[in-house]
Amino acid sequence: MAADCPQTQIVSVADREADIYDIFVEAQQQTGPRADYIIRAKEDRSTPERDPSAGPAVYCKVRDEVSRSKLRATRIVELGQTPKRAARQACLEIRAITVQVKPPHARSQLPSVTHNVVLVEEVGGPGDGTDVLWLLITTLLIKTPDEILRVIDYYVARWTVEIYFRTLKTGCRVEDIQLETNHRLKNCLAFENIIAW
């Protein structure tokens, strides 16, 4: 897609199910036009440095490294109501570093990768398990506070996109549409897109 649209920045935003080491290796090895990504980490991966305080065979963890880095920005976001939490404003502290990550132990033949990592932590949250704690892996720049906040803004926009597609699939049931012609299908989808929006 990036090769087909060289004047457009393509940014893929994904939740924890996309935290797959092979994606990071492929992105790092890719040449020519490439898409960027923001992926919420599921795994707390290891750096190549050992952690002597935890034992001789233990490596430092990415989350610990970014947690110890300096505060780069703060942000207040509106969290919508979900079945698990009430709507609220969340005050976020944001840290960001670039860190080298070693491959998973069972796949040590893969190369190390370099991550730009943004840690977003809620301050003064309710303490009921819904406090914001995101570890975001990205290929976007994180040198300035504005660049770091752009990563957060893109990630938060994912919620709106998910609601849109959930409305199309569940509310409008577009996957169940069985129309006989392409013309009818396009007209129906145009109407359903307006409803979902």
Helix tally equals 4
Shape: globular
Radius of gyration over C-alpha positions, nearest whole angstrom: 20 Å
Q: Helix/strand-derived class?
A: alpha+beta
Low-confidence stretches: none
CATH superfamily: Transposase Inhibitor Protein From Tn5, Chain A, domain 1
Explain this structure to me?
The chain is α+β, with helices and mostly antiparallel strands. The chain has a single domain, classed as Transposase Inhibitor Protein From Tn5, Chain A, domain 1 (Alpha-Beta Complex). Helix content is 29%, strand content 28%. The chain is built from 4 helices and 8 strands, in the order βαβββαββββαα. It has helices at residues 21-29, 62-67, 145-171, 182-196, and strands at residues 11-14, 36-40, 46-50, 59-61, 73-79, 88-101, 113-123, 133-138. The strands form 2 sheets. It has a 6-stranded mixed sheet. The protein has a two-stranded antiparallel ribbon with strand order 3-4. 16% of the residues are buried.
What is the compact description of this entry?
The chain has 197 residues and is an alpha+beta fold.
Topology of this structure?
Layout: E1 11-14, H1 21-29, E2 36-40, E3 46-50, E4 59-61, H2 62-67, E5 73-79, E6 88-101, E7 113-123, E8 133-138, H3 145-171, H4 182-196
Parallel strand pairs: 1-2
Antiparallel strand pairs: 2-8, 3-4, 5-6, 6-7, 7-8
Helix pairs in contact: 3-4
